[in-house]
Amino acid sequence: MTTQAQREASIQPIRQWSPIWIVPLAAIGIGIWMLYYSYQNQGPVVTLIAPHAEGIVAGKTPVKSRSVDVGQVVSVALTADLKQVEMKVRMRPDTAPLLNAETQFWVVRPQVSRSGITGLTTLLSGAYIELQPGDSDRIVLHHNLLETPPVASAEAAGIRIRLRSEDTGVLSVGDPVLYRGYEVGTVEHSSFDMHDRHMLYQLFIRAPYDSLVTENVRFWQASGVSFELTPDGVRVDVASIASLISGGVSFDVLEGWPAGEPVPSETEFALFPNKNSMHDGMYSQYVEYLLFFEESVRGLKAGAPVEYRGVRVGTVVSVPFFFSMAHPLETSFDQGIPVLIRIETGRLYENISTEQVKQQLARGAEQGLRAILKTSSLLTGGLYIDLDMMDEPDISWQAMDYAGYAVLPTARGGLSNIEQKVLMALEKMIQLPVEPLLEEGTRTLAQATTAMAEMQQVMLQLEAYLAQPAMQQVPEQLNHSLQQLEQLLQSFGPESQTHQRLNSNLQQFEQLQRDLQPLLHTLNQRSNALIFQATPEADPEPRRARP
Hints:
Elements: H1 2-7, H2 22-41, E1 45-50, E2 62-65, E3 68-78, E4 85-91, E5 104-108, E6 111-113, E7 116-118, H3 122-125, E8 128-132, E9 142-146, E10 158-165, E11 176-179, E12 182-193, E13 198-206, E14 217-221, E15 225-230, E16 233-238, H4 241-246, E17 249-253, E18 267-272, E19 286-293, E20 305-308, E21 311-318, H5 328-334, E22 337-344, H6 354-367, E23 369-375, E24 383-389, E25 401-402, E26 405-407, H7 415-431, H8 434-466, H9 469-491, H10 497-525
Parallel strand pairs: 1-9, 2-8, 5-9, 10-18, 11-17, 14-18, 19-26, 20-24
Antiparallel strand pairs: 1-4, 2-3, 3-4, 5-8, 6-7, 10-13, 11-12, 12-13, 14-17, 15-16, 19-22, 20-21, 21-22, 23-24, 25-26
């Protein structure tokens, strides 16, 4: 037993540290250092909010800035209200300065727009998020993902201008901004103002062309080809090739106006529908008048000119105008169709006031000034209003106001005046005693019919008389008589003996008349000379001259 007990091992605790523990301790230290290094060297996490996550894949979709990877999408999830998408993006450590308040994010994918086709490289590599850094010093880690890419970067040199338009959908993001046909900027944003009910557009005009935007410039839609039919003829304006394809907006200084001072960024201008209409913005001082036309106003549109003997002095505002009228239909039935016009002081004389315009028009209305509808184009049937002095005005006119507007007298003119005169002539013809005239005409016609019947009977009798055999011999007898008459006339011709004898007898008769002349003279003086011998008288002697 002693031998067996001696063979059993004895267990004793180790009193020295084993070198084998170095390996796990080193591994733990390396792991802690790696975690610390990774935490210290990882970039910030940016939260992006978007309406949808089309084309975005967590752990795969990169974030790029100028084609350089600066981060990656790490998670995609719905927001708490389940109406939007929240994306977490892990950025690189050295990209923290890029994340400021003006930084913009958007998704780059294939897109076809007016400005062309973009994002074709994503057909193979997939969509990615583009980062455009801003110029702010405030760091922001929460951004909204833009639906469309921005036109110009925040640090781009230039000026941003706001345009206001009453028409919707006339411009789109990416449309060019032109100055005399040369592209100097781009439309970068559009929105609709619900309160004022008009469109707002933001334009970016890059440097150095931003100095062209001054206080006297006007902006209008560049539709490429502008076709306008005016009383002077057909006007066609062709813009640049860019505007022919995509439209856009043009601007320039009004002809004859100075350029003015440069404007600051975010200045607001009005957007006119075409180049010709931008002159309307020049006339902000005007006087409104109400006209009542008895004839049809078909063809008269808002914006039509108001002229005075061929010179434009105003503009038609509304056709018809029923605003602020209690009974518009009764008004149109009693007085005519109401039309509101503006007499613009800037179109008259320089530095003339609205009060002077009112006084001159009131004086002109008293002297015969009337508003007349005239045709501006026979092809389109368009009308305009012409102010002119009438030769025979209605002297019963008195100045009056209606619905808060001064009223100008009107008169018929042109075709309408001719039509009125024709109607008046027809009314006079209708008032003529037509029935007695018709009865008298009927009796006259009956008498004429009776006379014609009697004449027809006479003609029949005459034809029957001429058809008798005796009447058939009348032409032969008449011909024989004419022959005898001709022979008789020939016997009295100059060469005939009868004519010679008659001429000789006439000569003898003249000689006898001359011979009897003294006898007749004597008998005229002494009627008894045939019975008593006449005493011969002495020859007459001329008287002597006085001493």
